[in-house]
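Q: How would the structure tokens look for this protein?
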Amino acid sequence: MGYLRELPAIGRDIGSVLLLIGTATLVPIIVGCFFQEWYALPWMASSTFAMLGLGGLLHMLPKNTKPPRASLSISATAVIWALVGFLGCFPFIFAGMPLIDAAFESMSAWTGTGFSIATNIESWPKTILLWRSLMQWIGGLGIVAFTLTVASKSGLVTQNLYRSEGGSESFMPSVIATAFQMWKIYLILTLIAIVAILLTGLSLWDAVNVAFCAIATGGMTIYAAGITHFNNFALEMVLIPIMLAGALPFRLYYVVYVSRSFREILYDRILHLMVGMYLFVAAVLIVELFTAGMPLMDTLRESLFMAGSVVSSTGFQNTTFAGWGLAPILFLSIFLMIEGAQGSTSGGIKLNRLQVMLEALGWWFRKTLQSPKAVVPMRHDGKPIYGKEGETLIAKSLLMILLFVLLMLGTLIVFLHDPYFSENLAHTIYDLCSCIGNNGSSTGVVGPMMPDYAKVVMFFIMWIARLEIIPVLILIWGILRGFDTQKKSERRD
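A: Here is the predicted structure in token form.
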């Protein structure tokens, strides 16, 4: 049987996810009723009906008699994200956005990228604005993780679906238990963020929306000017630890909860790496901007905040990059590709893979300096790894880094054929790295005036990068293999 003929085997599972995400769309509808925005409810209900309708049809497919192959389950994750990313755009269309712009806005929200090309967002009803924030919040930990938490008995091929969702990390024996604990932690962090933001003087409505976007490292806000709309220094400083908290592995919070002690996480190498990277980026920006003539207080404000936004993958920005030279912009572009840790809400290559490469570099030096006959194990997280296990770990990390770099370079080469992008190379590189890292901060290249073909390309890049490339490659390989298998079968017949 060809690969394509096996796709109905996962259709029921995809339907389950769409039904539950469709149910989640009722939250902004309820809020719309509270604010008496009756005219906006049909807009919001368009996505509700689309997801529930398609989900219901798929759920009527025959139940799996045996688990589908692993590659098919992984492909299902890519299909789920593509469908949800598109079906979530309908309220934006009714709010006045063209289809391509609305699809871009939807995928940007779901993937936590945070780019926005909306031009009249202040005129949108609160119903649609909350939907946009909620998309980031749910997408922050993952659509599949959300589904597993709500419906642990849905019959989903849990292990393959969950682990193929970019950034997912199991710290309990069951992936369902892991997803449940992550969402408990996520809710607590969100509530803490809301309270902290309220203390800076924001209204409850603004605080909830900003908290959703900050802890999810999404970066969209309900104002066209973004965070600068508030002109609130206290808010910006409070957001720095909130953004970094969303970029840390949720495993650390679980360890604190179980052990009732901060002692163990204080020795965690990912935490050290993130704090070190934040301080390094902030220090370089301070030197660069101050020596370029920016006033000291503006330098500190922009450097500290932008370092946190970039390192965490959030994408909030308190600057228009006016007065920034090429050097700091290109410097930040590097870190836009790395972002936070696995098992967090961040996108990008992930700190864990950078950690492996740094450990591999140290291992290589130790092997070079010692006797050729000496057995020098690689050390990962302070523990020795013998045999081919270390080489496999390095190869996997290096492969993922290479795929991200190739994705960036390939897209850049395509875009540079267009004067819109080639006229300002540094800004184009920054925004493209921001797209691939699911960050969302922008120098202005990404915007409503961007060519439509580029919006389509970035729609797919955000989707591919959020899933860390491999599930999409497996989906494409499976479809091509399915067509090839069908052609061979037809020739035999």
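Residues 434 and 456 are 16 Å apart (CA to CA).

Strands lie at 378-380, 383-385.

Upvote if useful.
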